[in-house]
Every structure is written in C-alpha cells, then in structure tokens.
Amino acid sequence: MSVSAGRCYWSSVLLVGVLSVFHLRTVAPQHCVWYGECGSSSVLPDKKLNCYYTGPPKALPPEGQPLLRELCPGYDYGNRSVCCDVDQLQTLKGSLQLPLQFLSRCPACFFNLMNLFCELTCGPSQSDFLNVTRVNSSSVAELQYYIGPAFANAMYNACRDVQAPSSNVPALSLLCGKDAKDCNATIWIQFMFSIDNGQTPFPIIPIFSDTAISGFSPMNNETVSCSDILEDGSGPCSCQDCTLTCGPTPVPPPLPPPWKIFGWDAMIVIMWIFYTCFLLLFVGALVCAWCYRRRTLVSEYGPIQDSKNPLCVNGDEMDQVNFSCCERLGERFEHALRVLFTWWGSLCVRRPLLVIAGSVLLVALSSGGLAYMQITTDPVELWSSPSSQARQEKDYFDHHFGPFFRTAQLIITTSLNSTIYSPYPAGADIPFGPVLDKDLLHQVLDLQLSIEGLEASHEGQTVTLKDVCLAPLSPYNNNCTILSVLNYFQNSHKVLDHRVGDEFYTYADFHDHFLYCVSAPASLNDTTKLHDPCLGTFGGPVFPWLALGGYDETNYNNATALVITFPLNNFLKDSEERGRALAWEQEFISFMKNYSHPNMTIAFSAERSVEDEIERESDSDITTVLISYAIMFVYISLALGHIHSLRRLLVDSKVSLGVAGILIVLGSVSSSLGIFSYAGVPLTLIVIEVIPFLVLAVGVDNIFIIVQTYQRDERSPHEEIHQQIGRILGDIAPSLFLSSFSETVAFFLGALSDMPAVRTFSLFAGLAVFIDFLLQISCFVSLLGLDAKRQEGNRLDIVCCVKLPEGQETKTDGFLFRFFKNIFAPFILQEWTRPVIVAVFVAMLSFSVAVIDKVEIGLDQKLSMPDDSYVLQYFKNLSEFLHTGAPLYFVVEEGVNYSSVEGQNLVCGGVGCNNDSLVQQVYYASLISNYSTVAYTPSSWLDDYFDWVKPQSTCCRYYNNTGQFCNASVVNPSCVPCRPMTPSGKHRPEGEDFMHFLPMFLSDNPNINCGKGGHAAYASAVDLSANGTAVGASYFMTYHTILRESPDFIQGLKMARTLAANISTAIQQPVFAYSVFYVFYEQYLTVAYDTALNLSVSVFSILLVSTVLLGFELWSACMVVVTISMILINMFGVMWLWNISLNAVSLVNLTMSCGISVEFCSHIVRAFSISVKGNRVERAQDALAHMGSSVFSGITLTKFGGILILALSKSQIFQVFYFRMYLSIVLLGAAHGLVFLPVLLSYVGQYFC
After folding, report:
1. Which of 232, 310, 707, 1215 has its CA 20 to 30 A from that of 1042?
2. Residue 742 and residue 864: Cα distance in Å, rounded?
3. Per mean pLDDT, which of 804-813, 820-829, 1119-1128 is the most reliable?
4. Spatial contact of 951 and 980, defined as CB atoms under 8 Å apart
5. First and final CA of the chain: distance in angstroms?
6. Which pLDDT belongs to residue 646?
7. Tens of pLDDT along 360-392?
8. Where are the alpha helices (DSSP H) in 938-1082?
9. Alpha carbon of 222 to those of 118, 123, 482, 1005: distances in Å?
C-alpha cells in the first residue's frame, strides 16, 4: 500500500530558500546563483535555504564525489567545479526519497527528472538558465528557471505511464497535483516548483521557451526516452511503465456473430423447416394409409382378429404363435413377477399385523438416524463439490493466505440536490454530487461513528468492532479498516470542517481535499493549502472506486452514492471467534433496521445477511408448504373412497386408508433421511423441500392405482379376499415396480453429478422412492385388506366399531373412470383428433428445441430473498451504483525461485522483466477490461520490494550493531542502508540478500519518508516457508470490473481462468485466479453439460429398466423414453417462456420431473402392452380408460391444488423454481401421459394383433 508524502515532496529538492527582500540580481554567465545552505525557511521551518552566491563554481570536496555520482549519475562533472556543497547534496538526497521510490522503476524517467534537479541544484552554468528575482538577506527568495519545452515534454513523456503498483494508479497522480489524466509537462513542473504544494520553501517560476529570453538560455539538456537503454546499462522501462516498449495494443477478439439463417435465428429457422417437413410427411403418411384402407375396405377401428397371423398373441389360438426368444423370455419374466407379487399380496392380507408391525419397526429404526441429522446451510457446501477446481483453489487460498474477509456494507443515497464548487482564485466550476454535501457528510460520519461504537454480546462477553475488524497494521495501529470517503478526513468532524481562507474567500476546504484524495488516496499530505493526509486511519488508502458510486468515468465528484464498507476478519475454523463476528453483525443489522434519517436512504448488508434471510424465508414458508401438503392430504383422503350411495358414505369412504397411505409416504421420506443421516450424509434445504413433493407424487399415484384397481375388480366365485388382492397385486405390481425401480435407478445415477445439491437430492430421492414402493406393496396392501374387510362388514370408516345394517347395493364405476372410458379416451382417439394432437405436440417440441439454447444460465441472487427482505434493496443499489467488482487474486503456487533473476523476471512488471510475465499479462488484460473483466493493473509486492530495497532509498535500513530493521522514520546514526551503493548493490537482490531483506519489507509500515513499506498491502500476500528461507505461494491482487448479473459473473470467471492458464503456460509454473464468488459460479461453467449428462443418464437408465420390466419389449420402452424426453425438452421451453434460469435448483427439479414423468407414462404403456383388445386404437383406449383415471386423480389432481398454494409464497425462489416448475411438470406430464402418449401408441405402439 504506497504512501505519498504528497504530490510535492518534489519541491523539497530545491534545497533553497529565503524570504522577504525583493531585488533583481544579474549573474554573469557560467557563474553560480547560490552555494551552500544558510538558515531555514520561515514558511517551512524544517526546510533549508540556499545562500545567495554569484561567484564561480567551486570544487566539490572528495567526500561529496560519491554522493554526486549517486544522485546525478548522468552528470559526471569530473574535476569541474559545481554550484553546490555536500550539505546541499545531502538535502537533495533526502528530498528525492519518495520520488525515487515511485519513479525509479522507470530508469529513463528518473534520469530525466534528476537532470532537471541536478542542473538546478549543482549545475556549474546555473546563471545561463536561472535568474534570481528576489533575495532576502543572504538567501534566495525567488527564482526563475528557464526550461526548454522539448526537455519538459520529453521528461513528462518518459514518466507519464509509470505506475504505482500498490495503489493501482499512475505515479503522476501522486506527484502532479492533479489526476494523471489532467496532467501535462507544464502543469507537472509548475506544481513541483510552487510554494502551494506545501513542500517548496520559496517560489521557483518555470519559464518555458525554445529561444533565449533577456539573455537567459533555456535548460534544454539531452533526454532519454523510456524505451532507451541508459549509459549505465539500465534497460528500457517495462511496458507497464512505458507504452513505447509495448507491442501493439491488445485488441479483444470480436464477439462471435449470432448464428442466423436468412437473417433469422438459426435454431428457429431449422425447427420451422423440421416441423414443416414433419407435417408434410405425417399428412402424406395419413393420406396413404387412408387410401390403402379405402382400397382394402379395412378400417383401423374394425376388429382385426386374424388368428392365422403369426404375430397375433391376443387371439384365441395362441399355441400356434411363433414366439421369438425375447418374447418368450419376456413372457416368463412377466409370469414370474405376477406369481411372486400374487403370493406376496396374499401373504400381506393374511398376515396384516405381522407385516404392519414389521414395517413400522423398520421405519422406526431407519428414522432413528434423524437424531444424527445434519443440515447444511453453508452455500459453499451446497453448491461446490470438494473435488471441484474452485473449491480446491479456495481451500489453497484459505490455507496459505487466510480466508477472505467478511464485510458489512452501507450504500447511502440522498434526495438532496447537487452543488457547485468554484475553486479559488480561478478555475471552472466543479459540480459535486448530492451525497458530497458537507452537512450530509457530517450526518453520515455520525452514523459511521455510531456503527463503530456498537456493542454486541456473545456468551456473556461484550463484542465491539475492534474485536472483529480487519486491522492490517496491528499491533502498531489498531484502527479498523473502514473503506469510506470519511476516511479521507480521518473520520473526524474537525478535519472535515478544516478550511483555509479569510472572511471573504475560501482558499481551500473539504472540496479541494476530496478532489486531491480521489486522485492520490495514498498521500500523507495533500498539496492544497490544507495539507491534510488522505491515507486512512487504518494505514491504507481508500480507493475512490470502492467508496463512491453512481459517478461517470472517473469523475468521482459526480457521485450519487456513498459506499461504506467494514471488512471483518473471517474465522472459518475458529467457532468462538466466528461467533463473535456473527454477534457483531447481528447487532449491526438490528441497528440499521431501526435507523432512519430524513436525508438518507440506506441499503445495507452484512456477511450473514443472505444466510439469515434464506433461513427466515424458509421459516416463513413453512405455513405455505404445510397448507399445500394439507390440501393434498385432504384430497387424497377423500378421493380414495368410491361412494355408491349417501347411506354408505361413511362405509365406502377411505379416509383412514388415505391417511395411512400418506403416513407411509412420510415414513419412506423419514427412513431415507434417517439412513443417510446414519451414514453422515448432511441434508440440504432442497432435500427437505423437494423430496416430500416427489415421493408424495409417486406414492399417491401408486396408492390410487392399487385402490382403484381393487374397487373396479369383481371377485371370482369361491375367491377369498386375500386371493383377490393377491391377484390384483400380481396384475398391477409389475407396473408399480417398473415405475418405482426406473425412478430409483435414474435418481441413483443422478447422484454421479458433481454438484453437491444435485447429488444429495438424488441419493435421498432414490432411496425414498424405493422404500415407498416396498412399504406400499407390503404395509399398504395389508391395510387395504383390513379396510376391505371393514367395508364388507359394513363398518364405518375411522369408527370401525360401528356397523351399519346389511343392505343390497349396486356396485358402479367411479366418475373419473366413466369419464375417461366413455368420453375422454374415445374423443382423443378419434380418427380426426389424433393427427391434430400429434401436430400440436410436435409443434410444442419444435418450439422448445428452438429456444433451448436461449434458456439463461445462472441464479439471480435476488430470487433467493423474500419479497420483503432488506437485502433486495441492497442488491438493487449494488447493481445500480457500484463501479468496481470483487477483488481478483492471481495466485502463484510454490515452485518459483524468487531469489534468482530468472524467477523474478517470470513474475515482475518492472525493468528487465519478461514481456509475458504475470504482472505484464494482467496489465495487458486491464487494457481491454470490457473484454477481460480485469479492471486494473495488479498490485505487485515484488516490484514494490525492488523499489524499497534500492540502496538509493532510505526505506531499507538496519541497525549496524544488532542487524534489526530500522524504519525510515527513525533518525539514528547507527541505521545504515541494507545494500551498498555499488553497481551490484543497485541491481535487484538475489540469493540470500533477497530472503534476508524480504521479511523486513513485509513488516515495514508506510510512512512519510517511505511509502513503499509492505506491511499493510502485502503482509498476507507472501507465504514464507517455515524457516523463512524461501517464498512459497504468493498472490498479486487486482479487481474485476463491475459484475451485475449471473452472465457477468460467469464471464468474469471464464476470462480470469483463461488468463491464469496463459500465465501458467508462459512462466511454466502453476498459477490460478481466485475471487470470492468463483466457488458459487463455477457450477454454471458446466451446468449445461451436467444437465445434459444427468438427464441423459437418467433417461437411458429408464430405457434399460423399462425394457426388462416390460417383458423385454424394447419398442414399448422406447415409447416411454420418447414421451419422457419430450416432457423434459418442453420443460426447457417453459423455462424460457417463464424466465426460469438453469442452475442447480432447476436441475434438481428437472431430475425430479424425469422421475415423475415415469409415473405419467409407464403405467399407460404397460397397460397398453398387456391389453387384450383387438388393435392399437382399442388397446390405447383400454389402457387410458383403466390407468388414465388413476394417474389423473393420483398425480395431477393431488398436486394441482397443492401447487397453486405455492403461488402465495413470499419467497421468490418458491414462486419461480417451485410453483412455476412444479406446475409445469404436472401439466406437461399430464398432457403428454394422458393425451399424447395414447395417441402415439395408437399409431406406433407394439402391435400384437
């Protein structure tokens, strides 16, 4: 974190001064205008003044020769005399320390600058270009310096690109008195020589001219370009500091043009063509089939019973049929399943108490694991796999550098009007945004100080901000880091009110200080008449792009928002310290919720806010979810009964059986949760919220099929009830087994996903569905047998001890069964209806395929918040006002030998560094920030270390008697430079020298004499080995550009990783990019692939299981898979229409929809497969009549009422990802399973005559 003593420490080089007497002196050519020092300035008492002297130059004593060569290496005057003594050279050296630290990284720049000051201070021909215009006693009081514009411009051009690595700003922003973009050669030199900069003890008036004026010839010495090699062997400046040494400016590759055909979106055009071709072929096939039937006088709807057809297996002479191997195997497998389930069903009815007790015991034992249940709410654990790249990089970063800090943040806006500031004595008016009104700043400061004074309680102890805040200079400076504009004013009302002026004019006030600080935030002394520091009280700079918002370009004075950030230490592994931080954050949130001010609108958030709001959202939605389930429970309990008459209402109702069925569903869920809790698998909120819905859909469907099949069945003579139910179970259990086992396999294969949320859901869901199936064919069948006996005994439901008198009742079919059999099935399977249905569903499919690539990827974080959350306003303001994104770290793993020049050149960005070094590549990326999302040049600890350790600098010193580090602010004769003023000493440190002085650099606090101290900026950036003999991992920090939406974050992650990969290839060392949000957004890099793979594996597993359990009827299994695939594809069409993005939550729902779709399809297909009707249409109608009503009442109606209640949820994520997606799943599943699939089977179903 660099610190400037102010932009004008330059002036101190003038070494001069004197006040008061004004008179002109004419100095003969080739003579001096001063020599030696005499007295101190009355304006700046700590500055020495130069003695007025008009004699010839004097020989420099021998002890001064090394100092002259050190300061003015390009001016070897040899034995010539000069116009300065040793004291003046010492003063010059001290005054040039901070310029040396910032500009010496570009040798040509510093050479030219020293040219300017060496000629001014010591030049033997001073009288040619210096004119003393006023003297006071024996001291120079005013001076004119004639300078050639060519020299001035060349000096400026060599320095204008030089960077200050730790501040991420051009060095001239610290040295010119203006922002670097507003600086030029004239302004820079005038500023350095002006007494207004607070450093120059007397005025020096630069006069720029190409020709002689009044006998004075301008100083126009030869300069060197920043791309030149100096005579002492110093190389050209790096590209980062000199654009002339760069190659062509990086140009971002053009964005790939959108894929279009004839000016239209290509996918839309392709699907239009596909749909048109399909319609032509389909209509053509129908016409041909119609003509064929007309010619042969055969109707598809007439009876087709040809027992001589070798494919006829439904005829009367089945013994004559030639079965294939697969058909025989399938028939045997089907027969085995039928026999097995018949025996099992009969056993369950005959031994109900044993079966029920065993089921209850197993559920109880399994559910006992809930005592060990762990619920994961940590977003990192939810969304990032421990084996993922981002997770491993996060763990590496946390291990070597500590976890990324927590934050509490305010974004403040106001309804006040903007103001205009008129600088004194002249200058254009400057607009100031409404949030920069001084009265408002005082009010904001009061708020900030109140937050600093908050006290929280944790386990009986008081917790203050100082206990948990980030204090980078601790223990030397315990002030908390507060990134706020008020830190430009030292968080002080007094400094904010500081004004210099009289009763008529204001010469400088907070406006001037603000304008200075936003261009030089690391300065310890501004160059206005205020001379107040800009550096924050915590010892570091407050960058304006972090503390202000709503400005345009870099016009920070136009800001419309103040951003105040309180970074807090993060304690991932210390639960006690983490608890203290959480307690303070909770106090902060409570305080801000109760705070109001008429002039301020405040959006705020703390690190815990999102997790707290999600938890509150879950709690608030419990009522909604319970109402939703209650509606489904009531419907199930009432709809299972088949009421024949009002008299038998309480006999024929099956409320108790319905409740038992629901308890079985809940028991299967709790068993699944318990079993995995035994295994130590943590639960997630998604599991708790989604799995009951899924298992209820699957379980209720099976319950309705079992009960309604029994209700429609006629018991054969001499058949007992256990035999009847066993026979029924033998008929339908293979279908239940088909759907449940298909779903179980699909879910378990879905657990192969790398996404923790998807994997956990798939594991719990797969086991819950299978346990539910086992309980239904055992416990529920036993309960059904008991209920059947109760009903036959005319006993009331629930109150089974009450018995009605015997009476003769006519058994009738249920309303839904009659509706499906007599109305719905015949209607959709009419000859003219079927083509329309196919055309409509293929149109839906074509549309969905056309927009599938347009479904947005990501998750808008605002959706995770309740409608009434205070965090929503914070997210809105964050997106609207902030101009800089998250910190971005390029981490160099262990292996680089920083002690060697070769290793240093791989990473650094200064003179001699490789053009493809890490710092250079990140710098190139920052030039095209709109493409790369890298906002700034990186802070480089290595380059700042090189500047810090230079022997010309006073930064690196040690006590010669102890060897301990001696800070630059210490005045002690025993402090000696770290490195000798020799040619080798001026080079970069290598070997033991490098590691010997590096710990000193990392412990040095910035001060007015040395702004390069690395403690604040780099103490955590370098991971030294245990014995301090080598550098292990290190990072180089910059920032992302502002990232607002999920696509922006995803692109930022992509570009940073691409850049890190390029750097790794160039330096042959592992380098990775890290930012705090990567661990959450990495999933979106592969979510499309993961979705395709997950759903494909699930569908393929359903195909295999269906093929086996349908008696090896591959074609029938294909019908199931085709329909399920259409449902899944249409889900993507709905997601695009309803603005539902693709992410882990929607992927879980898509996986669930795959399972529920099996319920809609598999029962219909199996019923079609075993139907004994004559042709495809009749078999489809028969399957739809018998299974359609159960599927419709079991899934569609059950879910529909419950889903509608979810629309009332306050949670946006519930409304979008649960209400919208669940409703779509049910409606699309019902439409495809009950409308399209029967029509498809009527055309191309497995045809056994």
Report:
1. 1215
2. 32
3. 1119-1128
4. yes
5. 85
6. 60
7. 999 999 999 989 888 877 778 777 888 889 999
8. 941-949, 983-986, 991-1003, 1015-1018, 1046-1067, 1078-1081
9. 13, 14, 47, 38
Q: Are 242 and 224 in contact (CB under 8 A)?
A: no
- DSSP for 1154-1168? HHHHHHHHHHHHHHH
What are the structure tokens assigned to 755, written together?
A: 């996404």
For residue 1139, how many other CB atoms are within 10 A of its CB? 11
User: Helix 438-452 to helix 575-594 angle, to the nearest 10 degrees?
Assistant: 140
Whole-angstrom distance, CA of residue 364 vs CA of residue 1160: 31
Residue 519 has a pLDDT of 83
DSSP 300: T
The secondary element (H helix, E strand) that includes residue 684 is strand 683-684
How many other CB atoms are there within 10 angstroms of residue 43's CB atom? 13
- Nearest of 1058, 1047, 1126, 1117 to residue 1081 by alpha carbon: 1047
pLDDT, tens only, 1108-1165: 878 788 888 899 999 999 999 999 999 999 989 998 888 888 888 888 888 888 888 8
Count of CB atoms situated within 10 Å of the CB of 296: 8
Q: Tokens representing 910?
A: 């200064």
Q: How many CB atoms lie within 10 A of CB 195?
A: 18
Give yes or no for residue 677 having a pLDDT over 80: yes
Contacts of 967 (CB under 8 A, 6+ apart): 957, 1004, 1005, 1007, 1010, 1013
Q: At which residue do the structure tokens 């950030």 appear?
A: 565
Number of residues in the chain? 1249
DSSP 530-560: S----S-TTSS---HHHHEES-BTTBGGG--
Query: Could you tell me if 500 and 507 are in contact, meaning their C-beta atoms sit under 8 angstroms apart?
Result: yes
In Å, what is the CA distance from 390 to each residue of 682, 980, 1154?
Answer: 21, 46, 29
Whether residue 567 has a cis bond before it, omega within 30° of 0: no
What mean pLDDT do residues 550-558 have?
89
